[in-house]
Structures are given as structure tokens and as C-alpha cells.
Amino acid sequence: MSSSYEKYQKRRLISSYFSVVISISLVLFLLGLLGLLVLNTKKVADHFKEQIALTIYLKDTAKEVEVKQLEKSLALAEYTKSTQYISKEEAAEQHSEEIGENFMEFLGYNPLQNSIDVYFNADYVSEEKIAEISQELTNKDFVEEVVYDKPLIALLNDNVKKISFWILILSGIFTFIAVLLINSSIRLSVYAKRFTIKTMQMVGATKSFIRKPFIWKSIRLGIIGSILALIGMAIILYYLDKNFQELQLLEDKVLLVGLFAGVFILGILISWFSTFFATQRFLNLQTDELYY
Known about the structure:
Blueprint (H helix, E strand, L loop, with lengths): L1 H48 L3 E6 L5 H13 L3 E7 L1 H12 L4 H4 L7 E6 L6 H12 L4 E5 L2 H42 L2 H9 L4 H37 L9 H31 L9
Helix pairs in contact: 1-6, 1-8, 1-9, 6-9, 8-9
């Protein structure tokens, strides 16, 4: 009978430990993904900003030397990420492909103009800075017109600010929830041994002596849970980097190492603090209070 009861208790204990590890790993995994999102919010925002182009339409009277000089000055400008010269012939060909027919056959001539597309570094994609650059380019004699999507830039910058704000808010809320969930799981595992704790206390064991094995056990469970979470994060990060290489998610290795180390340490610290306060609570209870 006692052997059967011991097996039952052992299975119950293993189940409790398993639940703690799963809780820690899942919560830290989600928290780690949120951390990845926070770290890469600016990078993702910058990627979209750098897709916005300013188009400089050149007059047909523009001299080749003037165009070359403009291209060179744009390439050297600190606000420029890249430039692309598109001749009127190339523009006509692209337009014909888009509409599915050769529009020049109807018109008898090519109404399009030579142009230069300018892509900016993300820090310069704002309404004020691009308006200033646009005005400077428009003042050149051989430039017919400068065109860019002003409403899109305003909308993009506004949405980036809103998204960044809410991501920070969600990070704080989710961190708080993560601590509560891990704490609850560990408290339940300690609760299952509350009578053992009280028995050890009644035979003269000190509080630190009683807490020590519980804390070390929880730290080991926290380490296992953290490792599982890190493995999951690594798999997701590898998948994202493979499918979205333009974001260069693995480029800043120092930040990634810091994030992974932070998740690992957080798992250990939460396990330690949760176990400490959970055992302290049962150590301070009277024997008859253990049944409630």
C-alpha cells in the first residue's frame, strides 16, 4: 500500500515539476519574442522608410554632364541610401509592361521624361527634411519637377510612433503577467510540499536550511525552462532571418546575445524570488492554517 502511495506521490511530483518547466518555458518564449519585436521595431520601420522614393524628372534640354554631376552629388549626400537613373525609354518600356500594351504606337512619340529615383536613409524620411531636399533640387534649372508621396511619409511616421508606444506598453504588461504566471506555477509546486516544510520546521530546521533545497530545485527548473525558451526563440529567429533577409535580424549579434542572456537570467531570477517568498509564506503559517 505504501509503495503504491509513494509511486503516486512521485508521479504527482514529476507532473508538478513538468508543469513548472512548461510554464516557465512558454512564458519566457513569448516574452523573448516580444523582446525581439522591441529590438527590431526600429529596424523594420527603417526598412519601410527606405523603400520610399523621391523622383526627380529632368528636362529634355538637360545636358549629360549636368545629369552626371547631379547623380554624383546625390550619391555623396548624407541623406542618400541609393539612386537609380531611369531613361525615358526604360520608363516607357516599364509603363507598357504595366498596362499590357505599347502606348507609344497610339501617341506616335514618348511623352515620358528621364528621371532619377532617390532612396533615403531612414533618419531623413520626414516631411520637413524631404520637403527641404525637394525644394533644393527643384531650384536646379535642368530639373522639371520633383515628386514624392507626402501623405504616405506622414502616415508612415505617425504609425511608427504609435506602434512603438504600444509595443512598449505591451512589453511592460506582458513582463508583469510573465512574473505572475511563473510565480503561480512555482507556488503551486511548493504548496504541494507545505506539510514537509512544516515538519522540517517542527524538528528544528532553520528557515534558510528548509528554503535551500526548494530554491535550488526551482533554479534548476528555471534553467531548463529558459533553455527550452531560448531554443524556441532561436528557431523562430532563424526562420524569420531566412525568409526576410532584407531585415538583417542577425546583424546585431551583441543585442541578440544580450536578449538571450536576459531571458535566461530572468527565468532564474523569477524562479529564485518566487520560491523564496512561497516557502517563506508556508514557514510563517501555523500548522492548522496549512489545511486552508
